[in-house]
Structure formats: C-alpha cells, structure tokens
Amino acid sequence: MSDLFRAKIAKIPLMPAELMPLDEEAEEDQHEFENGDHQDLPQSQTSDDSSSASSTATIKAFAQPEQFVLKPLESCRPGLLTKSRKQKKPDTQPISWNHYFSQKLALKSSLDSAFVTVGYYTPASENGPLFVCHHGAGSSALTFALMASEIRKLHPAAGVFCFDARGHGETITPDDQDLSLKTLSNDLGNTIFLLRDHLGWSKLPEIILVGHSVGGPVVTDLVKRCTLGSCVLGYVVIDVAEGSALGALEKMKAHVQARPSSFSNLSQAIDWHVRSRTIKNKLSARVSIPPLVYDSGEKDTPKPWKWRTDLSIAPTFWEDWFTGLSKKFLEGQGGKLLILAGTDRLDKELTIGQMQGKYQLVVLPEVGHFVQEDAPEKTASIVCITVLNSAFYINTMLIVDRLLNFTREMIVAPLFYQRKLVSHNSKYNDEFVFMTNPYVTTSGDRCLFVYIAVPGLTGS
C-alpha cells in the first residue's frame, strides 16, 4: 500500500458509535443498562484516550466487516440517548393495625362462648367522649383506622372503638349469615356493654356513634330504640340515605359480580381495590383490606385468597336495612350529622329535614363511597366539629372548656358566610372560629350554637 493511499485512509471520519460492533464487555454493559441494574455512568475519558479507543475499534471494524449490524437507536451504548428509568412498583404491602390503635380486643359473650367480637380500641383520657364506629357490609373495623388516628390528633382526650361486625373480619359468631338490621343493632349494643365490662367501667362514657354505609342504619336503629340511654351525645351517618340506597340494589349486585372472586396474594387484593378506585387512598387500603380476605390454603389454585364475607346474601337484607332509615334518622334523640359524597344521595324526607335544621349535612364531592378512607383528615375534622355543636343538645360551652381548654369568659367573634375571623382569648387562633347564639331545644334545655371553621376545609 502506497503512502498516498495510507494518507487518504487516515482522513476518513471515525465511525459513529451506534454502528460500532459491541465487544463482549460492551454487550454485558448494555444488558445491565436495559435491565435497570446500573449506577451513574462514569465521566468520559480524556480526548487522547478517546481517540485511541476509537481508533482501535475502527481498525477492528475494518478488519472484520461481517460484524457490522445496524441496531435500533434504543439499543445504543448507554449515554448516547436519554437514560431509561426503571419504574418503581407501587407499595401494596399491608400495614398493621397497631399504627392506629392502642389495643386489639377479643370480647367474649357471657351468654355464648362461641361468640367472640374482635375490636380495636384507643382509650379516652380526662373523661373524654368515646367514638364507637360501625362499618358497612363487606368492610371491617379498620376502615376507620386513619380517621381514628386523626380524631385523636384533634381531640387527644377522646377515645375510639371500632369492631368487626358478625360475618366480617375476625369476629366469630354461631351464625355469620344473619345480617338482619335487628341482629346487627343488638350486636352493637351488646358489644358496647361487653366493652364496659371488659374494661371495668362503672358506667358508660359519653358516646358518639359513627356508622358508614350499612353501619348508618345500625347506629340509627340503636339510637331510636334508646338502648344506651342518655350517654349517647349524637350519631354520625356516612354516605347512606334511604332513597338512593333502595335504588342502588342492582348496582350493588353488578359490583359484587364484577369483582374478582379470589386473589393470588394479599398485595394483589390491596392493589385491586386501589386500581378499581373502590378506595382512592392507598395508605388506607393497606390497613383496611387485609381483614377482608383470608388464605384458604388451597394448593391446587393459583389464587388461594378468598373473601371473608359472602356479599351475595346482601340483597336478602337490603330492604330491611334501608326502609324507614330517613324517618328514624330524623326522629332519633341527640345530635345528627350526615356526611355524603354527593347531594344526589339525599331523598325528599332528608332534604326537607335539612331545610328545617333537624340535622347537619356535609358534602364531600371529591371522595368515593368510602368517605372516611378517601379523606380521613376531613372526615375526622367534620365529626369532631359536630361534637362541639349544639345539635347534640348539651351545654356546648362545657365541651369547649373540657376538650379545647377555653376559659368560661372567652370572647367570641361572629362568623358570617364562612369568613375567616379569629376568636379572642384562644390558643387555637390559627385553626378555629366560633359563633355563639342562644338556642332552646324542644325539651327546654338552653344550649349554645358553636360553629368552627377549619382552614382548608371550609375555604376559610
């Protein structure tokens, strides 16, 4: 080869990297990069070293032209294109109950040793009120876990008790198929008395009953029958109304038929509830879903995790649960709060009652049916605010004194149209606004209206 030919070859530009053949070491680097098992790439070498390496590769390419392969751009050497990031899998690992409650109780019935009610309890302090929560059909006590934690943040003196109804969660009864309203209502009353005996109370504390979905008719029926007497300050019903519930039977049947009959593991069950938007709050789903399924231990199926509660029997009790709910809700003694996920759930009787001021109504349109799970902070705030409201037919100022440590001589600023004003003589100036007016109940008791606006909740 003449010197002139060698000079012409030397002037040919170096081959682009995407056309270079990859040696064994380069192919290994490429495999690691495509699988996301790589660290930050090292900085490029000096210009002299790069030229040397490129020259060597170019000579090797000309010596073995059969190795040239035109590869797609996405398979080029790392660093030539934007790095691909390995997507992080969503965390669907279960979370234990003890992050939200102090104790897990197994309350055994004195009449039937085969009847064991499992509940979760955080004790009250300083004679604070006790929130007793009843879940809906197909759910469990831990549907209130995050809300219970938020209640304690707002009112550290308050206690919270939530339990698994018969046929749900870990509760064991002689007849898990009897989900009639009368049976569930009796179970609720008996469980509260069992809790009293188990903890050695001389009498029941002041109680606020909270019921979600089917739990709403249960707590309403218990209050209507005056089973607990005067210790009930009031009751809260979450996202259930008679008219819309009776019309939703077919939708409920379709939902039960459409959901998976089993799961491969517990994480898959949690993931399905989040992906299907049944529960929009993944953190809450990681706590509340584990009690809903169990490992059947079947070896011949890839999906051994089954539902604990047979919701196919729900239509049998549907009318029994919801017929007459609105009337009982409005006639029950004590304060009443209805929290809904949409105004379309109100029926005529509730609409008239709300216009007459017979109960308090709060609508949270951004959440789904599991209001207390999708928005636990807001739900807890609304419930705690209602505890201080005169709708509970008690001396509201005494509750303010006990729970928020206000002085009896506090000066209160007025609140109109949810304007943000500040109450005087208060250590909660950044959080609460009050309005008081005299009010006389039908029984002749003199009470006070106390409204509280929480920033971010009422737009104040």
Description:
- The protein is an alpha/beta fold and 460 residues long.
- The protein has 3 domains: 3-75, no CATH class; 97-387, Alpha/Beta hydrolase fold, catalytic domain (Rossmann fold, 3-Layer(aba) Sandwich); 390-460, no CATH class.
- The protein has 16 helices and 13 strands.
- It has helices at residues 3-10, 24-34, 47-63, 145-154, 181-199, 215-224, 242-246, 249-258, 266-275, 282-288, 314-322, 325-331, 348-355, 371-374, 376-387, 396-404, and strands at residues 103-108, 116-122, 130-134, 159-163, 207-212, 232-238, 262-263, 293-295, 305-307, 335-340, 360-363, 438-440, 446-448.
- The strands form 3 sheets. The chain has an 8-stranded mixed β-sheet, sandwiched between helices. A 3-stranded antiparallel β-sheet has the order 7-9-8.
- The N and C termini lie far apart (88 Å).
- Mean pLDDT is 74; it is low at 15-71, 80-84 and 390-460.
**Number of extended strands:** 13
* Sheet with most strands: 8 strands, mixed
**Which strand-content bin applies to the residues?**
5-15%
Oligomer: single chain
| Helical stretch tally | 16
State the domain count.
3
Helix content: 25-40%
From the spread of the alpha carbons, the general shape counts as globular
Rg, rounded, reads: 32 Å
Q: What order do the SSEs take from the amino end to the carboxyl end, as H and E?
A: HHHEEEHEHEHEHHEHHEEHHEHEHHHEE
Regions with little confidence, pLDDT below 50 for 5+ residues: 15-71, 80-84, 390-460
Gap between N and C termini, in Å? Answer: 88 Å
Q: Under the CATH scheme, which architecture of the largest domain would be assigned?
A: 3-Layer(aba) Sandwich
